[in-house]
Amino acid sequence: MSSAQAVNYVEIEGANLKFYYDADFWGLNSASVAGNSISFDTSERFHVSAENDAIFGGATNTRFDYGYWSVIAVPKSGYSVALQLSASATSSYAFTGTGTGTSSSSIIGSISSGVYAGGGFTSPGFNAVFYQEGLVNSDLTPGSGTKVISTTVGNPASYFTAVALDTGMNIGASQFGKGHAETTLTDVTYGFTVTAVPEPETYAMMIAGLGLVGFAARRRKHAA
């Protein structure tokens, strides 16, 4: 069993979840929320370029970072959160010159179930791992564009009181022959699945209803 204290976490509210993100990893005020998804602006941290002035040879530049439990999702009262995650990332690329440019981006990580209490997250170690990569090659043609990569992992049928993410991002730019290549990871988004949990009063009504059904069935049996 492992745990982490939310010393550098910032709280931001979604529709049915409260998110706690590591401001040291993502950057303060880098997050935005839509429904039960949280997105991060990564354009300033994840930008690389490669320049080659010779007809032959090449140049490569990469950027990688990884954060342990960089996002914690805690359901609001009346809800629970599934051990399931949809992850997506958008990157932009540009190639100039007469050589061949290559742009790559990938997202990697895992989602773990656990308990969030007292400002910290404790996990028994159940998790699902994800990895998704995107690659763009200019094929000797200068140009620019965007690339979106996405994946979904986990078990939508298992629900918990909190889940946490290990998250990693990797980008690269390579230029072979004369020219310039650059890659920017503009944003990443993580979406979660929640379900409503019946209130105690609802359980009581269900039990009472089943009791009435059983009582009525017994009366019909005796009457027959």
Summarize the structure.
The protein is 12% helix and 67% strand.
Taken as a percent bin, the fraction of beta residues is over 45%
What is the averaged pLDDT score?
Answer: 86
Q: Into how many domains do the coordinates divide? A: 1
Coarse structural class: mainly beta
What's the arrangement of strands in the largest beta sheet?
A: 2-3-7-14-9-12
Q: Summarize the helix and strand pattern as letters.
A: EEEHEEEEEEEEEEEEH
Helices, by number, come to: 2
Largest beta-sheet details: 6 strands, antiparallel
Pick out the low-confidence regions. 201-208
Strand segment tally: 15
Q: How would you characterize the overall build of this protein?
A:
- The protein has 224 residues and is mainly β.
- The protein has one domain (9-198).
- The protein is 12% helix and 67% strand.
- The chain has helices at residues 23-26, 200-223, and strands spanning 2-5, 9-13, 17-22, 31-34, 37-41, 47-52, 58-75, 79-97, 100-113, 115-117, 120-123, 127-137, 143-160, 163-176, 179-196.
- Strands 2-3-7-14-9-12 form a 6-stranded antiparallel β-sheet. Strands 4, 5, 6, 8, 13 and 15 form a 6-stranded antiparallel β-sheet that branches. The protein has a 3-stranded antiparallel β-sheet with strand order 1-11-10, with no helix packed on it.
- It is elongated and about 65 Å long.
